[in-house]
Amino acid sequence: MQCFVYVVCGENHYIEQTNLSMKFLRKFTDKDILLVTDTKRNEGNFDLPNDKILDIETPKHYSNNQASIYLETKLGEILDFSQNQIYCYLDSDMLAVSKTINSVFDHVTTYPIFARDHCFIDQHSPHAMQCDCLQAHEKIRKAYYELEDILPVCQNTEERRKLNNFFSKVKKQPIRHSLDIASYLFRRYVSPQKILHLNNGLSFKKDTRTWHNQNGEIIDHDKKWHLKHINKTTGYQKVNTTWVHKDGHTLSAETPHCTHLREYLSKHYQLELPKKFRHWNGGLFVFDKRSIPALKDWHKYSLELLENPAFHVKYTDQVSLIITAYKHKFENKKKLPVRYNFICDYDDPRLKSMFQYDGYNGKQPVFLHVYHHWNDENWFLWKEIEDSLKHI
After folding, report:
1. Which of 141, 171, 175, 255 has its CA 20 to 30 A from that of 72?
2. Where residue 362 falls among pLDDT bands split at 50, 70, 90?
3. Can you list the alpha helix ranges (DSSP code H) found in the chain?
């Protein structure tokens, strides 16, 4: 027997999310669907028969988030394995998008099998730990973009190309274009006129050091002048993609990161992890009765961390999974292919559609993990998801 299982309890948002996820799931599979919940906590109703809902009481002092993690990591003790069942756990924000979804059960093995997360452990660290690094990085990113916003925003690359071609032609044949060069230099640096016009319809504003098309849009700017101006007024100098202040500190738009999680795991669990370590994502995993020992320890370690003030509750199951994987020695064993837990990042330019991701060897996702920007109608991906609902 093969069965999909959800764990959800609490706010109506997550119940509606689960109902939508199940709607996508039913389009592609006739496998059983189970839901594990604490009904006393729920604000809404699931689109599932009562005999497919397992009502499990959770510790009353837990928040709904803690209760969900409690149930998810306890599945090895909650579910029935008497008929050699194989289970596939799904987060409520997983959407099935392929008729091959049942193939996920073919990956069952002797340990609970997960896909890798989409970031390295140091990038996960400021989200998982109760440190100030996330806020500190956000301040740096904000200051970085404030400097970037000083630079003119250029549009219309075709007309910028026309401008560059003009200067390139002049530079290649300076003698032939000597009169054009003399006229340009005089009008830009000597003439009192505030705007310099070229014969091709483009113009240069001297006060802002910007090039414009006939519609007045900025198509290019005197980058050296603007960078020198920023350096003079703020003390920052642009070095590649980083702003460097004269006192030595830097601003960049890099992803927030820190070493606090690795340091904690080293100190308390004797785990020495490299900074390029990719942990697992708990959004989807496959298991059978052979996984029960590992699942029991996952639950035990999760309980240790759930009330630990060093961690944000939301990510304690991912941290406890790292500890479990090393204890049960499956940290270097086969992972679930990423297409079964395809994490959709709003800021990833490689994500082109529900079915296309540049650099992914042409393989299409099986399950989309829409972990943020759910219901965001400004995201092209969510618009595609809504359109696909019309055919379910």
Report:
1. 255
2. low
3. 12-28, 64-73, 75-78, 121-128, 133-148, 157-172, 178-189, 223-234, 260-269, 292-306, 316-327, 380-389
Strand pairing class (367-369; 342-343): parallel
CA distance 282 to 92: 11
The model's pLDDT over 33-74, given as tens digits with 9 standing for 90+, comes to 999 999 999 999 999 999 999 999 999 999 999 999 999 999
The DSSP symbol for 39 reads: G
Contact by Cβ (8 Å): 161, 294: no
Q: How many CA atoms lie within 13 A of 189 on its CB side?
A: 6
Closest CA relative to residue 116, chosen from 311, 316, 263, 322: 322
pLDDT tens, position by position, 215-262: 888 989 998 899 898 898 888 888 888 888 888 878 877 788 999 999
How many Cβ atoms are within 10 Å of 170's Cβ, its own excluded? 15
Please work out, in degrees rounded to the nearest 5, the angle formed at the alpha carbon of residue 272 by the alpha carbons of 269 and 274. 140
| Chain-centre distance for alpha carbon 379 | 13
What sign does the CA torsion over 133, 139, 144, 148 have?
A: positive
Which tokens sit at 202?
Answer: 């483009």
Burial of 102 (0-12, 13-18, 19+ CB in 10 A): middle
pLDDT band at 363 (very low <50, low <70, confident <90, very high): low
| H helix and E strand count, the chain | 12, 18
Instruction: Of 288, 275, 282, 369, give the one whose Cα is nearest residue 322.
Output: 282
Q: Are strands 342-343 and 242-245 parallel, antiparallel or unpaired?
A: unpaired
Helix (H) or strand (E) holding 315: none
Gap between the Cα atoms of 101 and 293, Å rounded? 27
Q: Which residues of 129-144 are buried (b: 16+ CB within 10 A; e: fewer)?
A: bebebbeebeebbebb
